[in-house]
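Blackboard transcription, Thursday session:
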Amino acid sequence: MKLYTFFRSSASYRVRIALNFKGISYEQAPIHLRRGGGEQLMPAYKAINPQALVPALEDNGKILTQSLAIIEYLEEKFPNPPLLPKDPADRAIVRSMALGIACEVHPIQNLRVLNYVKATYKQTDEQVNQWAQHWIELGLAALQEMIAAQPKRGKFCFGDTAMLADVCLIPQLGNARRYGCDLAKYPTILAIEKNCNALPAFADAAPEKQPDAE
Ligand SMILES: N[C@@H](CCC(=O)N[C@@H](CS)C(=O)NCC(=O)O)C(=O)O
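(Written on the board underneath:)
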């Protein structure tokens, strides 16, 4: 498999965790999101992913895009170890936590959205950071409440095994720090982060460990 990725991209980071978690070996094709105005916008990459976003995964000649679609593909093809619980209601809870980050938080603090807000509405870097912080903190607060409220409370977002929600949470925390969020408000989440990063699948997927890290 070949992963089109950028070390600092949190959506790519999700897929790197999932690949490691399932013990799948893969090669990396780095796409630099800033160099030359952004390699994701160049025709060579848009031919791979017309959405001009990383990640994309190439497997057996097929190109897959959108990190959660890719991870669900990996889950179906390589069910063990699982990233979703067995019970349908539990699966829905874990997916809801994951989507709370991937659909509600991440897209509105993404590079192209922040660039647009900054340029079109003449915002300063500080104002743009405040925008990102606002949405990230709203999402993390909601997630922390969801984690605390469910009876299967354990070492991870849902029980004692890392799952899809954790795969989305850990990369989002990197973005939270980059935009200056105060993470001390989320002790449950910080404890989960520690437990996740003790696992090689998570630790090896960290941005600073990637071949294209700067
Ligand atoms: N929903 C997409 C999000 C992908 C995404 O936003 N990727 C970012 C990096 S984390 C990107 O490529 N940004 C490029 C840009 O904003 O121009 C997914 O989960 O794959």
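Lecturer's comment: The pocket of glutathione is lined by residues 9-11, 33, 38, 40, 53-55, 66-68, 102, 110-112 (CB under 6 Å).
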